[in-house]
Amino acid sequence: MSEKVVLPKFDIPSESAHPAVKAAAIVGALLVVSMLILGGAIWKRRAAQLAAEQQRDALIAARTAEANAAIEAAKARVAEAAAKEAAAKADAAAKIEAAKLAAAAAKAHPADGSKDSSKTAVADASSGHHHHHGGKGGAKGKGKGGDAMAAKGSGDDKKSAAKGGRDNAAIDKLLAQFK
Questions:
Q1: 146: helix, strand or coil
Q2: Which of 46, 73, 77, 173 has the most CB atoms around its CB within 10 Å?
Q3: Distance between CA 175 and CA 168 in Å, rounded?
Q4: How many other CB atoms are there within 10 angstroms of residue 97's CB atom?
Q5: pTM of the predicted model over 0.85
């Protein structure tokens, strides 16, 4: 037994894969994992971009609404100021017209109560208008006709003032207030 027995070498196929196939499988698995990670990161970044765009659009819409509200408020303030200015001008014009009518009435009928017809005639001739007392709705009329005529005449004040003439009904109304 001193001889050594040499057994023949047989290649028995093993159930394990070749090392190159194992390496290819590992590289493929790593590639799939890295693609999933990269896809998830891209999807998350895209979602963040969409959220940022929506937030930006909402902010723009809010600021646009604020600016439109400020513009409307400014328009309202301008309209209110214009209305106040128009009212102030109308009030001033009414006061000036009333002062003119009062001055004309004072010239036409002196305050001392004297009935000097020569002064009245001179005042009438210089002012360019004639008084017509009596008749329908005159200054001495105390009924409805006088009030209606005075109210009707007050609307014509601005029209007749623009023509350059005077409205006798408005003067009669003013005179009726002093009596």
A1: helix
A2: 173
A3: 10
A4: 16
A5: no
